[in-house]
Backbone:
């Protein structure tokens, strides 16, 4: 038996340790720790990488969604539509400010927002202000269709790209289609800091200006507070680490795609549903998510044999206790609920070896022989 972790950040760190220590030393020698030169360098570099005009670095992906939404002038009582199959921060970052979530079911193969259901929702509810589609697990949603549908109804779009650094829709990087987008640099993301960090992107100067004030106590200039804002300032140490790692992102994504090919080769023929990659998509496999009706038993078997796996995410957001007040019962979003009962995330990170992937798959094969 060998141990295969779901993530292995220590292994990644060893591969670039010298560069990271040099980056940290650079910060200590400068003595700039909050919203300094490294933050500006990273904002400019990530904007160039994605192909957007503005990038505003903040304290987390959650804050990126919150600040982007408030910079888009969302207020208490406004409605946003998103999917229930996402990390709860997509919803909670805004609902905490009195913004009401409306949910759209997912497509059963990509687990992302179903544009056909979105069309029905927007035709039925004319008071939805913003749509937040989620590029989940590293696979883009049908963002082109979603943008078109929203435009017909006067709804603006914020992309949740927190799991999709470098993913492409029709050859163009996600996070560049909507009015704004949000990325997380949580340590396990395709591009991760060594603590919390996030960024929001936009091509609109007004949103950029508002977001920069909101992240720093609403300041328009020192000691002049034009807005009620927050303390969500990316620190220079994390920015320096991200500046060090960004040049590696595309190669790390290619390695993730190779690992996904190993999984597909080894799991073919077993009674599990494998991830898809649509013809218009470039999947960056933040997570490698399979699907099986025997999910819980399989996860337990993997754990007994040294393989860590996780479920992303049980239960769907609309069934979480804190959202009972919405009055949405089981059966409200059947595809999201069915997926939540069957999905299982297998180990996935760029330094995962072929031997480890083969072991994981042999263990799954052994489960189905028992």
Residues:
């Amino acid at each position: 038996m060998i141990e295969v972790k779901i993530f292995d950040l220590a292994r990644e760190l060893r591969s670039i340790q010298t560069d990271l220590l040099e980056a940290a030393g650079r910060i200590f020698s400068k003595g700039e720790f909050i919203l300094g030169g490294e933050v500006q360098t990273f904002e400019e570099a990530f904007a160039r990488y994605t192909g957007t005009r503005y990038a505003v670095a903040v304290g987390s992906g959650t804050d990126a969604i919150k600040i982007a939404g408030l910079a888009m002038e969302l207020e208490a009582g406004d409605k946003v539509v998103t999917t229930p199959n996402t990390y709860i921060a997509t919803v909670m970052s805004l609902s905490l400010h009195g913004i009401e979530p409306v949910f759209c079911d997912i497509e059963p193969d990509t687990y992302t927002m179903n544009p056909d259901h979105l069309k029905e929702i927007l035709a039925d509810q004319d008071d939805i202000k913003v749509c937040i589609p989620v590029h989940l697990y590293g696979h883009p949603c049908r963002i082109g269709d979603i943008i078109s549908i929203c435009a017909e109804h006067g709804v603006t779009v914020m992309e949740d790209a927190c799991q999709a650094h470098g993913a492409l829709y029709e050859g163009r990087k996600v996070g560049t289609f909507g009015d704004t987008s949000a990325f997380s640099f949580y340590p396990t993301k395709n591009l991760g800091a060594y603590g919390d960090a996030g960024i929001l992107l936009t091509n609109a100067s007004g949103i950029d200006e508002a977001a920069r004030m909101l992240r720093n106590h609403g300041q328009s200039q020192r000691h002049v507070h034009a807005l009620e804002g927050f303390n969500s300032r990316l620190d220079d140490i994390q920015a320096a680490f991200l500046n060090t790692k960004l040049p590696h992102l595309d190669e790390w994504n290619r390695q993730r795609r190779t690992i996904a090919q190993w999984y597909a080769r080894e799991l073919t023929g077993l009674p599990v549903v494998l991830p898809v990659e649509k013809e218009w998509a470039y999947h960056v496999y933040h997570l490698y998510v399979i699907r099986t009706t025997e999910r819980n038993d399989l996860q337990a078997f993997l754990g007994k044999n040294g393989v860590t796996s996780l479920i992303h995410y049980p239960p769907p957001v609309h069934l979480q206790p804190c959202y009972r007040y919405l009055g949405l019962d089981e059966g409200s979003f059947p595809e999201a609920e069915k997926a939540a009962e069957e999905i299982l995330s297998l180990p996935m990170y760029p330094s995962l070896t072929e031997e480890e992937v083969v072991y994981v798959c042999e263990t799954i094969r052994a489960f189905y022989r028992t």
Notes: The chain has two domains: 10-247, 249-369.
